[in-house]
Amino acid sequence: MSNRVLMKGNEVIAEAAVRAGCRHYFGYPITPQTEVMHYMAKRMPEVGGTMLQAESEVAAINMVYGASAAGARVMTTSSSPGISLKQEGFSYIAGAELPAVVVNVVRSGPGLGGILPAQGDYFQATKGGGHGDYRNIVLAPASIQELYELTVEAFNLADRYRMLALVLGDGALGQMMEPVAFRETEPIERVEKPWALTGRKGRAEHNTVQSIYIEADVMEAFNAKLQAKYADVTARETRVETVDCEGAEVILTAFGLTSRICRNVMHLAAKEGIKVGLVRPITLWPFPSQTYADIAAQPSVKAFLDIELNCGQMVEDVRLAVNGAKPVHFHGRTGGNLPTQQEILELVRQLAGRSAT
Amino acid sequence: MKPVFTRTTGLTDKPFHYCPGCTHGIIHRLIAEVMVEMGILDTTIGVSPVGCTYNNYEYFACDMVQAAHGRAPAVGTAIKRVHPDNMVFTYQGDGDLAAIGAAEIVHAAARGEKISTFFVNNAVYGMTSGQMAPTTLVGQVTTTSPFGRRPEFEGYPINVSEMIATLRGAVYVERVAVNDFAHISKAKKAIRKAFRVQQEGLGFSMVEILSTCPTNWGKDPVASLRWMEDAMFKQYPLGVYRGQELEV
Amino acid sequence: MPRVEFDEERCKGCGLCVSVCPQKIIALQKDKLNSKGFHPAGVVDMDRCTGCTMCATICPDVVITVYR
Fold first, then answer.
1. Complex confidence, ipTM
2. Which chain C residues are closer than 8 Å to B221 by Cβ?
3. In the prediction, which pLDDT does A3 show?
4. Domain A3-237: which topology?
5. Domain C3-67, architecture per CATH
6. Closest by Cα among A125, A118, A155, A126 to A32
7. What residues of B are in contact with residue C54 (Cβ under 8 Å)?
8. Mind listing the pLDDT tens digit for each residue in C5-41?
9. Which secondary structure element, helix H or strand E, spans residue A224, and what is its range?
10. Confidence (pTM)
């Protein structure tokens, strides 16, 4: 049983968070994601929650830090330049092992860049713009339906692992409308938070939340603990969609909305007798490296072609995963431009060894 | 014969790491005593800054969180929004609050966040070894103003209490000092009033506390107290800047 | 008889208590070092202590207990 409604991506992000039990949202206006705030401003009072417009992106992420330390499910959303400002907070959230959800509706950069869709924040999202050895879980939805489901899931993952879960949307995803089917009840995992700041209220010891480890051995032990957690997340939570890779000659790979262009190219190529597969990472961190390695080992595969709305970011991880077993090619567009099916198809033909028609 | 002055249970047993004669310890004790006397130790959540008191979460016996440099008012804002029935305070130095965190304190005050900020002004960066602070006095020698603060080059000190008091959301703002018995007693009253203002839900409250830094001032602890009186009191007059009329 | 107790191990020998004592009966113990390497403060003539708490009030390390 579900109701399909036509909704804008940014509003779906907000509604998904509310349905996931998020009652505290802190944000700062930036195109193209500000509708999340607009929606929250009306929706949060309906559910007894708080939408607070912060004085900056920096303040907003530190409000997330505070609310999370206090035990709440909390979210902030922004777009690329705003996410850059939040990196300090990301690092502290990792260092204090706090759960938090952040959505980046990516626009083009660097600098003030443009407000049109892009995927230029892959490095920032997966390699971290903040200081120190930390990771964030990064989820990359390819449809409004998936944007909804992954936003809900981000809250569960954040609580389960006491980590920041980042939903990385393509710029267009926030702005476009698609039907979304909301579940009657959300699969909310309730996690005990005995570490949270509530006031002692009779507790024998005071709780403290901090990210300072002054002693070398203590700092190293904490980093080892984080790395063990990240290994656990990698083992349990790596998510990837593969389509028709069995016996494929060329493997297209893309994340987010770009993967949908690739799907159309697969159909066009099939009409020409070229068998094309698709690998779409759903978690950008942890990255589905093993899937790439396994597919690269298939004799039928001649080459990988990575398509992104940037100058070549995820392709570095694809190359590390394929590890020289097969050539990995890249095609990207930026500034809000999208690769056309025809330009991708032409590259597929070349890689499959077919002459241009 | 009974004890008339004992170490408050608002502090943990951990010895302070501060330099000899640094008056942060007095301020810690006053806040801790007020929490115990008001019966709010069990409901208070404090926010530690970055700077010399980065780890005062180890000293206050209430729940504590350590914030990024300057961001304590943002962190405190959110905690109060999550737990409106709890008491929330931030403890911040002059670099933390008046330089890198200037935006956060102004907006928390402007929003009238129902939190209390204890702003410790010793006119210098302590932890990083004596650099010029926003509150460094004109002519004061620091490691980054070795010729003395020159207005034409380094600008003028910021009078934070006077500035915050212009904001409607800040309902109680007072500047106190911890240089002698009488002023320490007044400082404690101000801290209590700040918590009471919060308890009554009236709005943002801030107590600026003039403090010493013997190490970076290059003065012995007693001479530091005299310098505070002679030099800092002129630039930073003590008194209530907002909320004189409040009876709480 | 009023008296004061110093937790000498925590004392940093800053001398603020010495400077504020109205009876002038507190001094740093130059013949003594605590484990931190400081000369701790102590009372030289306890009989003259009035239990006024001025020393405890100024002590930044909260090492003084006052009985009266």
1. 0.97
2. 14-16
3. 75
4. Rossmann fold (3.40.50)
5. 2-Layer Sandwich (3.30)
6. A118
7. 181
8. 999 999 999 999 999 999 999 999 999 999 999 999 9
9. helix A216-237
10. 0.97
